[in-house]
Amino acid sequence: MMPFMSTDNQITCVIPALNAEATLPVTLASLRGIPVVVADGGSVDRTKAVVLDAGQKFETAAKGRGQQLGAGAKVALVDGAQWLLFLHADTVLEEGWQSEVEAFISDPAQANKAAVFTFKVDDDGAAARRLESLVAWRTRILALPYGDQGLLISARLYESLGGYRPLELMEDVDLVRRIGGNRLHVFKATALTSANKFKQAGYLRRSLRNLSCLGLFFLGLPVRWIARIYG
Q: What proportions of the chain, in percent to the nearest 5, are helix, strand and coil?
């Protein structure tokens, strides 16, 4: 894989992690060429060693994806990041993402916009293809991508929106709603996500649970209650 060709716009990737030693090595390898801050929520495996061995920053944060993302972003901003790339620890950016990102951040007109990647699951089954189609529809029609599609956003826009809120769940939906669909671009490059969580819970069951939680969030149910349903 070719390293990312740096520009005058410094990108830092922020990854929330919890016991992610199995998936992080490949994720970090796909990000070669840009600095990474891994915000850890209390891992008891070799997550820290994996991060440090890769020459990246390891930051301890309060457990909870919203809090971890916020903590990692603070570190990146202090280090001077002009663009923030948020990515899950079990997601890999596939070939071609560098050129699309390079073109996006090099265009001054995009400074007040954000971008996500096309969702893809590392599973050859029909259920995975149906899920990808559903996510593509939700992203295109409802402008509601989830965190496993990554998020690229300028530091200026991120800070003006108040960043990630310390939510146990739905932190990704909360932020993209504040960004707004008219400021959201979808890259053709794919974010390849592990199918393990879908296989363990069942594609249909997990999808229905996610949609139920999304509906409850829109109805204003406290996130701590939704988190109990999500499990």
A: 45, 20, 35
